[in-house]
Task: structure prediction
Amino acid sequence: MMPLALRLAGRELRGGLRGFRVFLLCLSLGVMAIAAVGTLRGMIAAGLADQGAVLLGGDARLQFTYRFASEAERDWMAARALQVSEVVDFRSMIVVGEDRALTQVKAVDDLYPLVGALRLEPDLPLDQALAGRDGLPGAVLDPVLAARLGLAIGDSFRLGAQDFVLMARLIHEPDSLGGGFSLGPRSLVRRADLAASGLIGPGTLFDSEYRLTLPAGTDLDMLQAEAEAEFADSGLRWNDRRSANPGVDRFVARLSDFLVLVGLAGLAVGGVGIATAVRAWAEARRETLGILRVLGADGRLILAVMLAQVLAVSALGIAVGLLFGALLPMLAAPILSGLLPFPLQATLSLRALVEAGFYGVLTALIFSLWPLSGAARQRAAALFRGGAGARPGWTAASVVAGLALTLIGTATLLSGNRWLALGTAGGIAVALALLALAGMGLRRSARRLAHRPRGRLALRAALAALGAPRGEAVPALLALGLGLTVLAAMGQIDANLRRTIAADLPARAPAFYVLDIQPDQIDAFRKMLSDDPEVGKVEAAPMLRGVLSRINGRPAAEVAGDHWVVRGDRGLTTLAGAPADLASGKWWPADYSGPPQLAFSAKEGAEIGLKLGDRLSVNVLGREIEAELVAFRNVDFSSAGMGFIMTLNPGALAGAPQTHIATIHAPPDAEARLMRDLGRAFPNITLIAVRGAIARAAEALGAIATATATAAASVMVTGLVVLVGTAAAGEGARAREAAILKVLGATRGMILRSFALRAALLGTMAGAVALVAGSAAAWAVIVWVMEGEFMLAPLVALAIVGGGALASLLAGLAFALRPLRARPAQVLRATE
Result:
């Protein structure tokens, strides 16, 4: 049977691809989106891998918090590395007269940078820039920071108790990405010049980094295992050139996973167009199928002939999608490289192309088999009479269900976030079901209402057309509605996040975080603020940072997995009396002096699977402290106030060099004065203006929102293509409808109003359903995933409903003009 089916399919395809244009476009767009995202992800990964040593500052990096490497650790590094460069990284305040600004200071040695090259303005060697002049040590500042403080080359400023002179502006820092997110612009100084600043001392918050260049052929896995075994309880954190910044890797992976899922939503929208195109193509070949039936062809042969043609066209559409999906990121690489701190590698990702092609094949089969199976089951008499199509059999339904489960399962397995993948698949399925039900409900309601509005001929004609058994209500609603659903969800999520960051968070958040308050300064600090009438609430607590290293004797990463709490060092505090936010357990007495005890944040503890009585080991300043978990606290991080994952009894950290952290609530007009007065009284402290941090978060959110909105817009483009294809496919039916109405005395204006009303009703219904489904999805993400408060954004809602109505209206009117111009006699003779 197959040779005969392929021969017949080949003959059919000689007539060209008429009827498959929408099919090809929908499939190509969906495959292209997924292939482009995967290719871009591969290019970024290749760029990170190629530039790993440059971004990290060396082949490997050993990092410590609150301390420098011990003599034994330095000897170990020196014995295995060709070169070792020490870098100290911390936050501080630059002071110029009465003006102050937060900066991220990088104090370097004479070997910096081991890998890569700095670019300064003016162009001079780094050692010359840091040598300074006129008896002052030199410094290099980020141009934004220099402009903010009004500093020109040769001007002086103060860091802590040390004066520096600005020698150059920092144009390019090769290892900027390796340091991760920073709240302030960069300053570069020499490590030796910090001795008199008072900024680096016992208990102050800083990171020491040791960048290593290694001999060629060094086994990084073995070296990492040796370092972690040799200094298991030292609080050492290891990175190497294979993953210069794990946070960036995770972010790129999560964002690309999300964009692939949005691409799959686009394929689902395109699938509606595929099903519509296949159904229209099968309808146009009724006579051919009837002749095959009369000549003895059974349903299996007819299905094989049609499926062979669909697969051949699918192969073409997938090939086109893969071609453009691979080419577009490469063409955009020069532009994108200018926006990234490393060059993209213009390489093809075979995995991305195979994944996109596989999704394309499954989508084509899922949405084609249903209408093809129905056409293949029709009898010859029904085919020649033009009766209603047969329903697909249980076999076809089972195959379609199996293919759909395969698609969902594959997307879930390949995604880094399986719950997100399952949620997306479930959301798409629910949205399609809602839109299909809305389409059927609209068809039934229109059929009933068509005879009621007496005298309103345009409305009656529009309702009669919408109620037709083979009308365009369901396919048009599915095509436009799913794209609008994705846009509605993205719009509501973005609006809620922006509202939280721009309005709710600043209203609850403190004005300042204050770091590195020394123990002998805390009383004077509190008194100064308590005497200030403009200062509201002030909270202060001792703070250290530590690494949760073990849980019940096992490495914490084995127990907690990839949870953020165990990825690096976390803030911890000590507290004598029981807090007001105690959730469960029993707090230690205020005068407790026994073995170390610990309280943990209840939410994060539940996520990790902790329970009362567990033994937790925390590495603080290279010392391993094992404590019994005796209580859980309800720690609220949503207000951007003071919150600690771990709290220890004071005796557990007795003798450790602690500083204090504080939060200050004050009105915006008092912030500048407070920063000036506190900086003058306590020059070593660091003040972080929360509003500035919120602005940086909003800026980062804006970039992410742009990427997701672009992806959602691509889904909408596919939906518009399907809508236009559906309108084009119904052009012949509109011509016959217009001809009959003209014969019955209708004017062109009335017919045009009828077409416009029909399109507007479809678009409004699609927008309304999309608004409900998209808002429900956004509510689930905001409330369940982000644990925030959801509020419907009315402007976004109106834009979705209005946009749906407008898009449908324009598409309907675009294909209404030719039917209106056609002469009734010609149209009716052609349909006899």
Q: What stands out?
A: Residues 42 and 682 are 49 Å apart (CA to CA). The chain is about 55% helix and 15% strand.
